[in-house]
């Protein structure tokens, strides 16, 4: 969800929340890792966890079967920080940055742009690689049935 699609009242509320300190009871919601989570969702959940750890912020991971349905954007991960519910990795990063906590303070604008480009490239390549891998597995399974091997 881009900034332009977030309702104005929610943007104002989140910006006002930026003035508050980091809550002690932050929960990061995600689906069960082994049984339920898809690779792109797992990557985003791991990225959110890594980001929060790198920022040295306290949080608790909560696994829920219906985590996607609980999210305001129907995407995982999402955090509940005090009275705020913030979804998706980008939203979580923006929320944390709004509190004055950032990992890119020492980077200039060009380095920040390079970092965003690399992150986008990696995200797009890995997501497409997963789709291609799934299609290849389906083709392999349909062509080579173990019941008919000699």
UniProtKB/TrEMBL annotation:
Name this protein carries in UniProt: Thioredoxin-like fold domain-containing protein
Q: Where in the numbering of this chain does the Thioredoxin-like fold domain appear?
A: 43-132
| InterPro entries, per the entry | Mito_Protein_Transport_Metaxin, Thioredoxin-like_fold
Family matches, as Pfam families: GST_N_4
Highest taxon in the source lineage: Eukaryota
For biological process, the GO terms are:
mitochondrion organization
Q: Which GO terms describe its cellular component?
A: SAM complex
């Amino acid at each position: 969800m881009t900034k332009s699609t977030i309702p104005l009242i929610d943007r104002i509320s989140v910006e006002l929340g930026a003035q508050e300190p980091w809550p002690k009871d932050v929960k990061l919601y995600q689906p069960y890792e082994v049984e339920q989570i898809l690779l792109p969702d797992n990557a985003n959940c791991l990225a959110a966890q890594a980001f929060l750890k790198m920022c040295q912020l306290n949080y608790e991971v909560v696994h829920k079967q219906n985590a996607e349905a609980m999210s305001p954007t129907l995407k995982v991960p999402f955090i509940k920080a005090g009275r705020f519910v913030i979804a998706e990795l980008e939203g979580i990063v923006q929320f944390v940055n709004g509190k004055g906590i950032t990992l890119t303070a020492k980077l200039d604008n060009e380095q920040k742009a390079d970092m965003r480009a690399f992150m986008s490239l990696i995200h797009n390549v890995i997501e497409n690689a997963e789709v291609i891998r799934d299609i290849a597995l389906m083709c392999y399974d349909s062509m080579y049935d173990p019941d008919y091997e000699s």
